[in-house]
Design a protein that fits this description.
Blueprint: H1 2-7, E1 13-16, E2 24-26, E3 31-38, E4 46-52, E5 58-60, E6 62-64, H2 66-69, E7 78-80, E8 85-87, E9 93-95, E10 99-105
Antiparallel strand pairs: 1-3, 2-6, 3-4, 4-10, 5-9, 7-8, 7-10
């Protein structure tokens, strides 16, 4: 986690918590979405944090306001930062119980 924090310059990012920001929301019970964005150069435009507070694995059904995020979903690149693998989309993302996913968006 510390390596990821350093590589993406998280200390220079602005945090948008699920409780006050609606640019990305979850339609799935017990799944919450917060995000970070940067005003300074960073490897990613957004870091999406998808947390599952439930005990069982869930598929995160997300509602994303791409215009508000100023991202074109047709050309965006997604990366699972924890596992360091590319993702083809944000649809059908499974989040283990009592865990989270870190998704970088370029």
């Amino acid at each position: 986690l510390w390596k990821i924090r350093h590589e993406i310059a998280i200390s220079q990012a602005e945090f948008h918590g699920y409780w006050f920001d609606s640019a990305i929301t979850s339609k799935t019970a017990d799944v919450y979405v917060s995000r970070y964005d940067w005003k300074t150069p960073s490897p990613y435009l957004q870091l999406i944090v998808i947390g599952n507070i439930g005990a069982q694995e869930k598929v995160a059904e997300l509602a994303i306001d791409w215009q508000r995020l100023e991202i074109n979903p047709a050309t965006a690149e997604f990366r699972d930062l924890w596992n360091d693998v590319p993702l083809s989309s944000l649809e059908g993302l499974k989040v283990p119980g009592h865990s989270f996913r870190l998704i970088g968006v370029r």
